Each structure stands twice: as structure tokens, then as C-alpha cells.
Amino acid sequence: MNSLKKILLQFALPYKKYFFLGILFNVLYSLFATVSVVSIKPVLDMLFGGGEQRQETLAQMKEQASRGFTDQLTYDLYLKVQEYIAAAGEKQTLAYLCLLVIVMFLLKNVARFFAQYFIVLLRCGVSRDLRSALYNKVLSLPVAYFTDRKKGDIMTRMSTDVSMIEGELLNAVMEMWRTPLSIIFTLVALFYISPVLTMFSLMVLPIMAWVISAIGKSLKRDARRGLTETGNLLSQIDETLNGTKIIKIFNAEETLKQRFRNSVNILRRLSVNMMKKYELASPTSEFLGSVALIFITWYGGSLILDGKGSLDASYFLIFIALFFQLLEPSKTLSNSISNLHKGTASTERVIETLESHVQIEEIKNPVVLTELRKEICFNNVEFAYEEGHSILRSVSFIVPKGKTIAIVGQSGSGKTTLANLLARFYDVSGGSITIDGHDLRDLKLKDFRKLMGMVTQESVLFNETVFNNICLSNPNASKDEVVNAAKVANALEFIEQLPNGFDTFIGEGGSKLSGGQKQRIAIARAVLKNPPIMILDEATSALDTQSERLVQEALENLMSNRTSLVIAHRLSTIVNSDLIVVMERGKVIEQGTHTELLEKDGMYKKLIDMQKFT
């Protein structure tokens, strides 16, 4: 329940006004619900008793009036009714009493409407803030966080878990306030009518409480497992949508179908178990309540028939009606307890995400860096994704300002890891990376990243217009600046041929564009930012020859007068680099210009020969 407490304190507290107004109208609803039933008593007395019976009842009430405030109040009200009957007649009095009952029921339902209205304001406000907090948290989490988790699970936490908290958990919390009040008001009325009969009827409640508690605990376990499996299911759907071409070319449909079938079967079993236990709570409480009602009818009827006690027929009917009214909040309370246990699994998952450790942290007073003045230094850099499995070992080299440094090597040698460390997606495990003598870990991260641009092998584009995709790096850019960036990136010609030019929507991930077109838009985005430091991670490796030529020209325009770190698979693209760093198994084995490395006749020369480059 600690997770629920955190959710309420952090996200419900700002809406405490709606919470208290909801409680107030729930109190009024509970009060009017009891009064509306009790107000039928004078009507029943008029229908079931004649004038002599009413006078006899009045005499009995007068004798009892001295016993306490409620007895005196009952006597005074009954006396007023008798006086009105004497003055206006029975039919007119009956009409006014019926009108009074209607007013009580109207007030009850008006109070219920406002109670639900303020609860809706509370729920919608909390869910909005919760989703925003989760989204902001996801944006702030480091890249390393997402390598260990499935996208489907994160999506489930932001959608299904939040919906569970909004729809069931917050309702359950409010019902836990309302239903006890309804029960208390009803019990007060029941005890007033007949303490003996009330005590007899309440014997079933401890049994109901025990049954509902056992069901609720079991529900929580199944709910958490069900949410985890829903995340797995969404991950499989995401992988299927992203890999349709590979699935079809390798005829992997049956394998994927079986994998998905297994997952939905597990989810079905968990869902059936949850619904079975959830639906068991309400009929169980209703059955036990019905049993209690039958015993009440038998016992109360016996009291009336024997003429024992002060219970008469009209009071007994009111008692039955109130007990029926007691069953509904009891059922609601049992469902709320079940929902509370069920929803707690969601609060635990949401809080787990919100409290996830941001591994890339700033020091207390970070250095604000606004420009690169001299150089970037890699000083004996060590890195491992997992302890004991080193990716980089004692990597050292210098990137002078305005120079282009190329990183080459076989797959798995650690080239992309170096780029990720420079962008500070991860922190080094040993050694340091410095800019103008300042360790990256001492810099203000947001200002440092303003100095950087990146173009990767896989162009990350959004389902937006071409204009908005380019403007992502500079939201305040003018149309002329965007057009100029597209021109530098060799993208202007094909953009102008699109159906709506810069206002053309490019589809999810840029699906309406070719690989070369997507890459040139990504380059235009980097050009528009105009950063002093550029990271190019195999930006042309997935392109055909013509697209590569256009993209390479765009990259050369982009790197002009900038400090660039280029990770290249095609060595033909980096022959003019100021320094080429050759890596193998996480170590730097050679450094030098293209000519110098050829003269060494080492690994670089072997790579050149393998690509048949002359």
C-alpha cells in the first residue's frame, strides 16, 4: 500500500478540493439515502392504521419521548402529522407526505450526481498528471534503461496501468470513504428501529469480510502477472509491425503465430482467473446478505406475531428496506476492496518507473559549457555494459577543434560505444572524456548537448511533416532557415517534389520516403541545429551508390568547419579525415592519416584490401 500512498500524496493532493467536495456530497448522499427510506414511515402509518391506531401510537410515543432526543423528535414530528391530518384531512396529508418522500429521493440523487462529478474531476486530473509524469520520466531516463526493458512493458505502464489507477483504484478509494458512511447512517437507523433485530442481522458481516479479504489478496497476485504479460504481448506486436519484411522473407509466420498464441493463452488464463475471483466477491456478499435477510424476516416476523418489543408492521417494512439498502454499499465495499488489491499492482509498477534511477546524473554545481575552444580528449577510457564484460579498454586519442576524426574497425570493436559515450548516453566505467579539460561528468548535460549533433545509420524520424522533422533541432527556426538547411543537406530538390512540399506527412518512421531521403532529412535537421560538434555513426552504410553520393556530399557540407567524430564502415568515405583511429576488440591499435596508415601496412591496410579499395 506504500505505492498507493505515494500516488495519492504526489498526484491526488493537488486536487484535494475535488476530493473533499466529493466526500461532502457523498456524506449528503448517504444521509439522504437513509432519510428517504425512513420518510416513508408516516405514509405507511396512514395506510396501515386508522384514526384509533394513530392515536394509540401517539400515546405510546408520548410516553417514550422522555427517554432521549430522538424519541422526543419522533414524537414531535408525529404530533405535527396528526395535527395536519385533523386540519387538512387524510388525503391531502398523504399527498404532502408523498411529495416529501419524492423531495428526499431527489436530494439523494442530486447529491450523488455532484459526488460523482467531483470524483471525475479528481480522476481525470490525476490520470493526466500521472501520464505526463511518466512520459517526462521516460524522456529523462538514460539509454541504458531501455536496453534492459521491453517497449511493450513501458507502454503498458503508461496506458493500462494508469487507466487502472484512474478507473478502478481512485474509484475504490472514494468508495472506501462513501460506503462506510452509508453503512453507518443505515446502521444508526436500524439500531433505532430495533437493536435486537439489528444485532441478529449483523452476524453475517464478519463472514463476508473474511471471504472478500481472501479474494482480494489473490487478485493482486494475478493482476501483476497479467500486466506483465500484457507488456510482453505489446512488445511482440511492436516487433511484428517493425519486422514484417523479415518475417515474410524467412516464412516465419508460423513461428510468430505460435509465439503470440502462447502469450495470449497465458493472458487468457490470467484474465479468467482475475475475472472469476473478481466476480465471485459480489455474488458471495449478495448471497450472504440474502441469507441474513431471510433470517431477519423470520425473526422479525416472530417478534411481531408474538407481540414482543416495540416493533410494528410499518417499522418492520422500513427495517427490511433499510437492510436492503445496507446490502448495496456492503457489495460496493467488497468490490472496492477487490479493486484496491487489483489496482495496487498497477501503482507498484508505475511508482517503480517514476522512481527509476537516472544513471546519468549531474553533479551539484555543474560546469556550463557554451562552446568548444580547444579539443576533446579520450583518456584511457574503459567501459562495460555488464561487469566483467569489457567493451572498451584503455582507449586514448584527441579530437582537436575543427578536425575530422574517423573511427574504423570490424563490427563489435566498440566504435558506436565511443560515440554513445561522447554523447553521454552512458558514463565511462574508467578513465575520462574531457572537453577543454572539463570531464563530461562535470558538465551541465543539457547545455553540453546543445553543442552536439548526431546522424546515425538508422534515421529516426517522426510521423510529422518534413518541416516539423527538420525543426525538431530548432523549433524557432524560420522557413528560410529550414529551406537553407535542406539545401545544404541535398534534400531540397526531392522535398519540393513531394505532394505538399515541406508540409508533407512522411508516415511513421518516415515510411513514405526512401532510405537516402530519410537520411538527408536527418542531416538537414543536424544542419539546422548548427552544432560545433558532429557525431556521424555509419550514416551512409545502408544506402545505394547514388544515395550514398548525395548523402556524402551533404555530410561534407555538414562537417565543414566543425569538429566531427565519424564512425565509418565504408572506408572510402573517410580517406580525407584528419585522423583515423583503428579499433579492434575494444582497443586502439593504430592511429594516423590515410597515407600514414597505409605505409604501416597494419590492420587498416587489411581493411582497405578487404574492401578492394585503391
Write up what this structure looks like:
- It is a single chain.
- With 614 residues, the protein is α/β, with parallel strands linked by helices.
- 65% of the residues lie in helices and 11% in strands.
- It has 22 helices and ten strands.
- The strands form two sheets. A six-stranded mixed sheet has the order 6-7-8-3-9-10, with helices on both faces. The protein has a four-stranded antiparallel sheet with strand order 2-1-4-5, with helices on one face.
- The longest helix has 54 residues.
- It is elongated.
Topology readout:
Elements: H1 2-12, H2 16-38, H3 41-48, H4 51-64, H5 69-88, H6 90-140, H7 143-147, H8 151-193, H9 195-201, H10 205-242, H11 244-249, H12 253-306, H13 313-354, E1 375-386, E2 389-400, E3 404-409, H14 415-422, E4 430-435, E5 438-439, H15 445-449, E6 452-456, H16 466-470, H17 479-488, H18 492-496, H19 515-529, E7 533-537, H20 545-559, E8 563-567, E9 579-584, E10 587-592, H21 594-600, H22 603-610
Parallel strand pairs: 3-8, 3-9, 6-7, 7-8
Antiparallel strand pairs: 1-2, 1-4, 4-5, 9-10
Helix pairs in contact: 1-13, 2-6, 2-8, 2-13, 3-13, 4-5, 5-6, 6-8, 8-9, 8-10, 8-13, 10-12, 10-13, 12-13, 17-19, 19-20
